[in-house]
Amino acid sequence: MSEVKYTYAVARIRALESSLFSKEVIAQLMSCQTKQQCLAFLSERNWGNVDTPMETESILDCEREKTWDIIRSLVEDMSVFDVLVYPDLFHNLKAAIKKLAGETSREDIFIKNTSPSGAELYEIIRQKEFHRLPKHMEEPARRATQALIQTGDGQLCDIFIDQATLAAIYEAGKASKEEVVRKYAETVVATANLKIATRSYRTKKTMEFMQQSMSPCDTLDIQMLAQAALKGMEAIRTYLEGTIYAKGAQMLTEAPAIFECWCDNQVVRMIRPQLHNPFSIGPLMAYLLARENEIKTVRIILSGKFNELSEASIRERVREMYV
């Protein structure tokens, strides 16, 4: 894309950023007493379309589609955003394997707009034609399918696919010429490793489990992190204090949800400088991530209201906003 095209695209994104939810708008949404009031609040702010059912997933899916449609209208080569699509693509791979193994009979298990599609992935797995998969999916798909069918161990299937997702994101980041993509990949993989370490400690997982689950990155030594997780939360905290994630060490004294929220907030903080970037792919990438974060936060609030969680419990899960 030419610099002129970037300039136009960024100008369009700048106009759209004004409609992103600020922390004040999120606070207003939080103040709604019921899930239905929350949905009405979203509808007043043009979430969903006129024919969108007043249901959580329908509205959130619609907003996600709107966001990607905007980016597609501005960018000719969408491959730069592949790194953001990998979680959906690998989710569909996992869903296809579990559907084949009879673990689910639901028809709505696949996320739309991936290539290959969920239905195509299912046929590839069913026919055991793993060579038809993208290269970074072939071996993980083979291992996960074998593990689930032979052992019935759904968690082992998840481990193989989830680690492959992180590896694909990281590889895409390393290969990208765009700094924002490289930083995004590093942040996502590193914070995923941190979540794995803290969850592994709480659930008494083994070193083998962590080695199968974590993915290498530049800003963390995953071997040292895993060893710390075997010793306890204080050891994890001590390790983190010697890394660029030292502020996260303080969060380990809080509830698990607060620490995981801090991890997710690192992506928002990483992309925030793009608010002042006049052109490049950065602001478009940031807008996509900001919208994903916004949709995720709204889902957390709606789920909390539906399950009648306390406001304090919902609040500790609410993510930081981009604007």
Please characterize this protein's 3D structure.
The protein is mainly α and 323 residues long. The chain has 3 domains: 118 residues, Orthogonal Bundle (Topoisomerase I, Chain A, domain 4); 95 residues; 86 residues. 68% of the residues lie in helices and 0% in strands. The protein is built from 16 helices and no strands.
What is the topological layout?
Elements: H1 3-17, H2 23-31, H3 35-44, H4 56-74, H5 82-100, H6 118-126, H7 135-151, H8 154-175, H9 179-202, H10 207-213, H11 222-231, H12 233-240, H13 246-251, H14 256-271, H15 282-306, H16 311-315
Helix pairs in contact: 4-15, 5-6, 5-7, 5-8, 7-8, 8-9, 9-11, 9-14, 11-12
Summary?
The chain has 3 domains: about 1-75 and about 280-323, Topoisomerase I, Chain A, domain 4 (Orthogonal Bundle), CATH 1.10.132; about 80-175; about 180-265.
Low-confidence stretches: none
**Portion in beta strands:** under 5%
Query: Could you state the order of secondary-structure elements as H and E?
Result: HHHHHHHHHHHHHHHH
CATH architecture label of the largest domain: Orthogonal Bundle
Radius of gyration: 20 Å
Main β-sheet description:
none
Q: What is the number of E strands? A: 0
| SS summary, helix count | 16
Q: Quick one: CATH class of the largest domain?
A: Mainly Alpha
In CATH terms, the superfamily of the largest domain is: ATP synthase (C/AC39) subunit, domain 3
Which structural class do the helices and strands define?
Answer: mainly alpha
CATH topology of the largest domain: Topoisomerase I, Chain A, domain 4
Oligomer: single chain
Distance between the termini: 26 Å
The domain count comes to 3
**Taking all residues together, what is the mean pLDDT?**
94
Identify the overall geometry. globular
Measured as a percent range, the helix fraction is 55-70%
